[in-house]
């Protein structure tokens, strides 16, 4: 049993790259590869109100699909631009409640701070609406799916101020320093999510070595964050899939340069290799348990049985 994060709403899964249609939408093929690779469930991440609506609609199409509801830091201007910030927030809350009732919404997010892309949204606006979304986690009793880029001090300060408003969560796609890592680990209810973007440099790998496996999750964050041939950890990768350029699309092959949920096994392989863990299955068991603790707590008992299988656990 396994699960993976996916930005299924992204245009790349519609066959559109930089505004150009290169092939037909291929979500069914992407999902087939995921299920064949051992992925059991997928979390479709929402990054705005409209995107969260679309994520819920997609999640309803398959019993193995779930989603988040929230506003990404780079999109937080949408609250003010709506002309009714509180009404916009209440629409987000109503959507999350609807998704919970349908058994599909498993977290609030993706929300947080991104100071690498302040041209999309000023820091003060990001901070205001990051903090506001803790209200959703508190009222709805959901975990947080968090985003942090070049903003560790403010991010951790806001977490500290709101630590009693959320039960648990993950700071996904972590790319920070050892100091950033240790700040996050100081929150005993927080996990750190690792994907291809976390494994680019030797410094990244050194930071990874200091994350205890019982505080870690792995993910794809596809269609982005693939492990590239230039990444420091690529020599640990053993699993590969046939791939072709988008212009020569073949539904039996992955699209070169586009990440997919099936590729999460590569992240597991790099984490194992980097940390010197020879038993890939045992590492997978721990990571899968972490995932269930946060997003699927009602499945912890069944997950314990499933961990006896040789499957790949992912976020």
Could you walk me through the main structural features you see in this protein, from its secondary elements to its overall organization?
Pfam families: TatD_DNase. The structure is a single chain. 39% of the residues lie in helices and 16% in strands. It is α/β, with parallel strands linked by helices and 315 residues long. It has a single domain (3-306), classed as TIM Barrel. A hairpin with a 2-residue loop joins strand 2 and strand 3. The chain is globular, with a radius of gyration of 18 Å.
Which SSEs are present, and which pair or pack?
Layout: E1 3-6, E2 16-17, E3 20-21, H1 27-36, E4 41-44, H2 49-59, E5 65-69, H3 77-81, H4 85-101, E6 105-114, H5 123-140, E7 144-149, H6 152-161, E8 169-172, H7 178-185, E9 190-194, H8 202-209, E10 216-218, E11 243-244, E12 254-255, H9 264-275, H10 280-295, H11 300-306
Parallel strand pairs: 1-4, 4-5, 5-6, 6-7, 7-8, 8-9, 9-10, 11-12
Antiparallel strand pairs: 2-3
Helix pairs in contact: 2-4
Pfam families: TatD_DNase (PF01026)
Family: Belongs to the metallo-dependent hydrolases superfamily. TatD-type hydrolase family.
Keywords: Hydrolase, Metal-binding, Nuclease
Strand order of the largest sheet: 1-4-5-6-7-8-9-10
CATH superfamily: Metal-dependent hydrolases
At CATH level 2, the architecture is Alpha-Beta Barrel
**Ends distance:** 12 Å
CATH topology: TIM Barrel
Shape verdict: globular
Q: State the secondary-structure class.
A: alpha/beta
User: Main β-sheet: number of strands, strand sense, barrel status?
Assistant: 8 strands, parallel
| Helix residue percentage | 25-40%
Pfam family, one: TatD_DNase
GO molecular function: 3'-5'-DNA exonuclease activity; metal ion binding
Keywords: Hydrolase, Metal-binding, Nuclease
Binding site for a divalent metal cation 2: 147, 172
């Amino acid at each position: 049993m396994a699960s993976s994060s996916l930005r299924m709403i992204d245009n790349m899964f519609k066959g559109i790259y930089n505004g150009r249609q290169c092939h037909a939408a291929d979500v069914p093929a992407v999902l087939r590869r995921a299920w064949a690779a051992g992925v059991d469930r997928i979390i479709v991440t929402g990054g705005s109100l409209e995107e969260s609506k679309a994520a819920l609609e997609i999640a309803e199409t398959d019993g193995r699909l779930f989603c988040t509801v929230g506003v990404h830091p780079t999109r937080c201007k949408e609250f003010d631009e709506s002309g009714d910030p509180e009404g916009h927030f209440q629409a987000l809350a109503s959507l999350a409640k609807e998704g919970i009732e349908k058994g599909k919404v498993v977290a609030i997010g993706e929300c947080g701070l991104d100071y690498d892309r302040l041209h999309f949204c000023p820091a003060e606006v990001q901070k205001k609406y990051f903090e506001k979304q803790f209200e959703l986690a508190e009222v709805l009793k959901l975990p947080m799916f968090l985003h942090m880029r070049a903003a560790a001090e403010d991010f951790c300060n806001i977490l500290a101020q709101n630590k009693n408003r959320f039960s648990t969560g993950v700071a996904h796609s972590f790319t920070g320093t050892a100091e950033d890592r240790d700040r996050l680990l100081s929150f005993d209810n927080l996990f750190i999510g690792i994907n291809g973007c976390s494994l680019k440099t030797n410094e990244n790998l050194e930071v990874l070595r200091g994350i205890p496996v019982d505080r870690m999750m792995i993910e794809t964050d596809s269609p982005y964050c693939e492990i590239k041939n230039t990444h420091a950890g690529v020599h640990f990768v053993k699993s590969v899939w046939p791939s072709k350029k988008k212009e020569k699309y073949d539904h039996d092959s992955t699209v070169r340069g586009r990440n997919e949920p099936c590729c999460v096994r590569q992240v597991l392989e790099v984490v194992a290799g980097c940390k010197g863990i020879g038993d890939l299955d045992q590492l997978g068991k721990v990571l899968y348990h972490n995932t269930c603790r946060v997003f699927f707590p009602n499945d912890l008992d069944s997950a314990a049985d499933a961990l006896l299988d040789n499957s790949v656990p992912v976020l």
